[in-house]
Amino acid sequence: MAESTRLVDLVHERIAGFVTDRASILTSVSEELDPLVDISRRFLSGGKRYRALFCYWGWQAASGEPDGFDPFADDEDSRPSTAVVGAASALEVFHAAALVHDDIIDNSDTRRGSPSAHRLFQSLHRSSGWAGDGADFGRSTAILHGDLLLGWSDELLDDALDELADRAAARRARGEFNRMRTEVTAGQYLDILEERAWPTRDESEFRERAENVIVYKSAKYSVLAPLVIGAAMAGGTDAQLSALRSFGLPLGIAFQLRDDLLGVFGDEQVTGKPSGDDLREGKRTMLIALAREQLPTGARRLLDELLGDPDLDDEQIRLLQSTIRESGAVDEVEALIARNVVRAITALTDAPLTRTARRELTALAETVTRRAA
Predict the structure, then answer these.
(1) Region of residue 276 (left: phi > 0; alpha: psi -120 to 50; beta: else)
(2) What is the per-residue pLDDT for 372?
(3) Considering only CA atoms, which of 371, 272, 369, 366 is closest in space to residue 46?
């Protein structure tokens, strides 16, 4: 636990230092770019750093370091650790970029209890008295902001990989990062597609299509890819990377299923987003697929009619929440989460990974799937 806390602190420091360095480039162009720097700092300063932790424990799982080894010691032997802190930081900046773009796509007003990036830029437009439409300005500048963060994540990763003496390991880690970046974009597209194309789909496909979105939009990029990137940097064997994939995929699915429940039933004071936000956005999640399978025709038709209406009031949200809960879908999703956590933890049994990492990954599996935000 102490190592995880220290890792999170180091990631905070690495990101803060990087933003300060890049801020000097932006402000040398124009002082009018100060808001871009300020909003970047704001978006990169928070979060639970799960992706950073999975990257670090993937590295530790394959590093083969003995118990008692201090991965943060300030000597030459710490260079791989310095590198993995950089890679973990790159993953967190990539995540922030994805959230900025995701909030634009979903037209979300909030993120972590504060205004989303495009709303912050919209407020800047309004308070400055500029010409044109504030919402258009907010969306346009947030797209650029997300693109900037994507570029920064690449820079952080390149700096980290340059520190590795094992160039084959560096190339393998870069390949895993590139694959993750492509897959999460594909998953995001599929998510958007399902919100629009579902009336043309066969009813029997809804569950399978929802799971496909889970795997590529979230499971791989939230858990599996960070684990494998860290292990690849440590020079992990094929067997070690395979074991981490067997752990990471079911855990990533469970992680997103918990998100699906929080997106419909979460407490706004805890999640930082309005309760029922996924209902207003029309997310065709596994939760919705399972509810539709169990609901009678009339209730299913009502669900389809209301889902995706951005103007749903609190009473309509409560009606949909009650309908979904009474269908039994919530209990079924909880059962799916539990089964996937068991699959993940079982994959660690006798896996060719360090004992400390197996213990910490088991604890992390419980943490990320039982969270309230």
Answers:
(1) left
(2) 86
(3) 272
Residues spanned by the domain of 178: 2-369
User: Above 50 in pLDDT, residue 166?
Assistant: yes
In terms of Cβ atoms closer than 10 Å to its own Cβ (0-12, 13-18, 19+), residue 227 is buried
At 76 the pLDDT is 47
Mean pLDDT of the region 350-363 = 96
Task: List beta partners, residue 114.
Answer: 111
Instruction: Pull the structure tokens for residue 315.
Output: 């009473």
Which H/E stretch holds residue 111? strand 110-111
Q: Which residues contact 11 (CB under 8 A, 6 or more apart)?
A: 49, 52, 85, 88, 89, 92
DSSP state letters, 211-224: HHHIIIIIIIIIII
At residue 78, does pLDDT exceed 50?
no
Q: Between the CA atoms of 97, 101, 106 and 112, what dihedral angle is there, to the nearest 10 degrees?
A: 30
Q: Which CATH number goes with the domain that contains 188?
A: 1.10.600.10
How is residue 97 written in tokens? 């970029």
Please report which confidence band the pLDDT of residue 70 belongs to, taking 50, 70 and 90 as the band edges: low
Burial status of residue 102 (CB atoms within 10 A of its CB: 0-12, 13-18, 19 or more): middle
The β-bridge partners of 272 are none
How are beta strands 110-111 and 114-115 bridged, if at all? antiparallel
* 217: Cα within 13 Å, side-chain hemisphere: 23
What pLDDT was estimated at residue 331? 98
Strand, helix or coil for residue 114:
strand
Distance, CA of 315 to CA of 304 (rounded, Å):
17
- Both tokens assigned to 325: 């809960």
**Which band of pLDDT confidence, cut at 50, 70 and 90, is reported for residue 68?**
very low
- Which pTM value belongs to this model? 0.94
Average pLDDT for residues 86-98, to the nearest whole number? 98
Yes or no: say if 80 and 164 are a contact pair by the CB < 8 Å rule. yes
Number of domains in the chain: 1
As a whole number of angstroms, the distance between CA 156 and CA 158 comes to 6
